[in-house]
Fold 3-sulfinopropanoyl-CoA desulfinase.
Amino acid sequence: MDFGFSDEQLMIQDVARRIAQEKIAPSAEHHDRTGEFPLENIRTLGENGLMGIEVPAEYGGAGMDPIAYVLAMVEIAAADAAHSTIVSVNNSLFCNGILTFGNEEQKQLYVRAIAEGREIGAFALTEPQSGSDATAMRCKATLQDDGTYLVNGKKSWITSGPVAKYIVLFAMTDMDKGARGITAFMVDTEREGFHRGKTEPKMGIRASATCEIEFTDYVIKPEEVLGAEGEGFKIAMSVLDAGRIGIASQAIGIARAAYEATLEYVRERKAFGQPIGAFQMTQAKIADMKCKLDASLLLTLRAAWKKGETEKHGGRFSTEAAVAKLTASEAAMWITHQALQIHGGMGYSKELPIERYFRDAKITEIYEGTSEIQRLVIARNETGLR
């Protein structure tokens, strides 16, 4: 593993940092307070290659690698986690899945519009009764005599669902086969039979629009099958491995923002005649925050490096991705908690972004595989036991 970054990787990091500081950070409080989807900022990110960082140039992306993706995601998340959620879904869950399992026509039709920031993509796996247990899904796609599929059912907690043009959908095509009966499809949300529910009133990442979606006799054409029939579960698990690197990066960005704000605060805030950063209990918290932050970043870069290696030589990176997400998400929750505690009453006030960092950090322990699921993935991969 090379700890040095290439000029190209540093360039995309600089672009992300500039947009994050000039566009995203100044509007973060407004978007958090109102829940307004940051479409203008997302368009700017797309125009600068950040909605398709690992997407090859021939499909409208920046043509970069997983390391560059981590570096850019951290910068965006440090400015506002909600923006980074939208970026993560477009990059990791939408574009990555189609690039890996889609055909040439699907790549041209679906990936280009998303990578260029002209449209928004989404990923529909979770259902009201099936979260961590994806094989319990009830959304059904029934094959018709003319080769089309008729889809009926609901999906819940769909990030970018209220605004998405295209969605990667997972539905049962054979209920008797369990995981092997799941198929992935491409959905155009402007077609008859697709319905959006209310936007969820979330605790954090409030500008990242989330809703329930429903299908009523929605017709899917044969050319809209992603991969082959019955490969949906394999596709979903593969895509989630990549997504977990994105969420780990998001967690690092949130934690870094909280840590940097805390460093500044403990130098300036005085109590008993000296800066509170001079007190040993505060120093212990700062030291632990720094260790957790650095460990999370290194583990996430390792996962990104391993992803790049598997793309070249084959193999899996599920353990590395799970380790990165578990470590980074729990570190973000701990670091933002300590940051709030150190800031005291001001940390609890909406006058400072500390309480937003705390609220935003929590979701990183939940979506794209809870911390409990990450521990199962890691332990099962390590022991070989199921």
